[in-house]
Amino acid sequence: MPPATPWRRMMCVAYECILLFGVLFFFGYGFSALAQFKGQPGPVRWAFQGFVFLVLAAYFGWSWSEGRRTLPMKTMMVSVVTAEGAPLSRGRAFARFVAACAMLLLAAAAGSFVHGALWLLILAPFLWVLVDRDHRALYDVVAGTRLVHLKG
């Protein structure tokens, strides 16, 4: 299967962000209503951030595993597979999600605590797509996955 082009990958990311707004709004509102969370710092904020992480992990872990695809992936005719071309297991899908989150969090931490210019590292996993021969993002390299274009 041919790798998904950087354009196709970025269109999936943009479309996914639009859909995730609704998912996170729904679950975030539910959490806020039940916990009476209004954004204040403290343990409830940490619980909210953990809850959002779990919601996203469940969404992507389920959507990427066992040959399933998110709506943007179906629209753009792409699928996430292992390096050998097999569908992802739930564990591999979760590993891909954790690798992506870890890279974004490390870049954010470097930008916040080391130097403001290091915020640009957030782009590194996506820019790697332009130099990798299989158009894999850095988190795909770490997780042993790739995004492929499904013909027809």
In short:
The chain is mostly helical and 152 residues long. Helices cover 62% and strands 7% of the residues.
Main β sheet profile: 2 strands, antiparallel
* Beta-strand percent range: 5-15%
- Average pLDDT rating: 96
Q: What is the N-to-C succession of helices and strands?
A: HHHEHHHE
| Number of domains as seen in the coordinates | 1
Strand order of the largest sheet: 1-2
Low-confidence stretches: none
How far apart lie the N and C ends?
12 Å
Structural overview:
By secondary structure, the chain is mainly alpha-helical. It has a two-stranded antiparallel sheet. The chain has 6 helices and 2 strands. The chain has one domain (6-149).
Features:
globular, 7% strand, mainly alpha, 152 residues, two-stranded antiparallel ribbon
Please write out the topology:
Elements: H1 6-35, H2 43-64, H3 71-75, E1 78-82, H4 90-113, H5 124-131, H6 138-143, E2 145-149
Antiparallel strand pairs: 1-2
